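Model it.
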Amino acid sequence: IASRTLKIAELLGLYVPTDYILPMCTAHLVDSESKQVPRFVSSCLTALSAVITNSSVRFGNQFEGHIDKLIDLIICSDYLQSDNIEVLDRVLKITNNMVFAAGKSYCKPRRHSLFKILLQLGSNQQMQYAIKDVDKCLELLATNCGLGDASDLFSQELENMLKELREDFELWTKHTPERFIFDMLVRRANTAVVDYWDEILEIVANCMEREKDYELRMDMIALIEHFLKTESLHSTIVFYSEIILKMVLVPSFAWSTGIPS
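Modeled.
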């Protein structure tokens, strides 16, 4: 039944004008009562994903007018913060189909928004089983935006993402999604981080303060270890070594009653 229903959704996308079918699909996803039922949400997202795939082929001129609305739907709803793995999986499928359908014509103006969605999905601990699928979508997004590969995409987006992350990093806890986003971002940006050491180390040092959650502090130490093991970063690491020692490593050695070291 599920496979035949999916096929029907694909056919609807192929034969029914986008301006008519997409609003019908999204109406169920913004309804407050419907959003309280994860299984219903995941089913609607699956149908929407199938519709997008074929709708963009036959009604490409109409699809462009709905891309921004679909992106806003994903970002402004609670889907990216969902605890339901099926909902997250369907959001990834929709995003992948949007990137594919948007192609080189429509992806570039929306690169930052699409990148943020994929970054949040890829950094979500529940989605680690699908990291290869996230990476494939990142590669496709990079290609559609005229970049060499996903690492170039991370490098290009690093500055803007750091500006956004620095708005509330002082409030991060072990549960804050942004701290996982930060970790994935700077690890994948490769040598682009050398231009933003001050901003990166400021965030790391703050997250290493004694009153911060143990898990948060341990992940920041692991991140510093990653930098130290990356040969291409050694020259700049040497330049910032005193700061890393004083602001990050030495404070973590201090012993306090009731606080894990």
